Amino acid sequence: MKPATFRYRRPETLDQALAELGEHGSGASVLAGGQSLVPLMNQRRARPAVLVDITRLPGLGQVTDAPGRLRVGALVTQAAFERAPGLAGRCPIALECLPFTGHLATRNRGTVGGSIAHADPRAELPLALLVLGGAAEVASAGGRRTIAAEDLFTGPYESALRPDEILVATAWPTTDELPGQAFEEVAQRHGDYTIASAAVALRVEDGVVAAARVGVGAVGDRPLLVPEPGAVLAGRVVDEDAAEAAGRAAADAIEHPLADIHGSAAYRRHLAGVLVARTARRAWERAVA
Amino acid sequence: MGAGGRVTAPGDEAVAVEVTVNGRRYREIVEPRLLLADLLRHRLGLTGTHVGCEHGVCGACTVRLDGLAVRSCLVFAVQADGCEVDTVEGLAGTGELTDLQRAFRAHHALQCGFCTPGVLMATEDLLARGEPVERADVERLLAGQVCRCTGYEPIIAAILETAESRRARA
After folding, report:
1. What is this model's ipTM?
2. Do B144 and A105 touch (CB under 8 A)?
3. What is the model's pTM?
């Protein structure tokens, strides 16, 4: 299908873009890479009256390496993030989740900021940002604020961003805090919609887990941070038994698993547990390597 | 009104777009909602770019935008303003098939040919990176390019052969 009509704005400064959003409110949508919004528009599931194209705004396309975190401008494409120098050492969870994010041709255009703001409960980047304890930097005509990832995802395709706000950057904590990181997911075909995913980031001290953050994706109405498996892992060596126990704890903690034609609730719960066990093992191996 | 038609709808405003396609510059007045795929096909007559699903799943409409493979059904024509677009017509622009196209013929990597332009354009992006290409890389690439005829094996063979011969020449 073809999209419905809309008015097109291509502001050249962030202030102009914010003024457009302030004027048109929820009738306007922000267009970045368009790899989620344009399909919705083509299917007429989204019909914004005004489209504010931010792709030509200056200063939003860089990855900046700061102490303890990578600051990723909203317009950095998923493909560019994947190739960011040093990503393997600084933020391995991002490097590991990006190949699952759509396909080469959609990553070339889809942005990191767009994926976070779109808040798809099945998407990889929101889960990774959540597990790392990252944040989003958002701007409105009234100023800027930072939203912690824990507070950012509020429901399916719903975020804490107000209609007059634009996400300008995301902050990705680097391995200094949680050096052992792993991400895994299952989909019918590579790059298709996630059936279940899991991410783990942990720190080892004195030969045992000192801190672990565990998250699961595509099993709820948003990416979920689950504390139970982290508690299971704390103080332990992550051998097969500990990993499996963490996986079971994660599966049990999922309250209302999503169910659709790609997977029943029971299957998704099971899969999430298996993936948590696998990622916990891998994160451990990387932390002690 | 056809997809390539002029603006009449309320709330819509015509916009000018200047785009270079296969080295030739075009200036068009378009509705903002006109997709790049439809600009290419209906305005510029470049029907080599095929349109399958129109929501970014099948990959048939893949072209290169400033060198990078993109779904032309997920880009508005106005967003290509000032950009360079390469379509399948540009591959054998001189009348001689490229090495990749010859490999497709040699390996019978197409039957109906609907997916082929998209596969070729996506592959050219992968090969342009100059990195070694493994079978797994090709399989991942083709996960985003739906083919209903070949079973993919001949396509994989053609791409791997081309990747190898280009690296040997480089």
Report:
1. 0.94
2. yes
3. 0.95
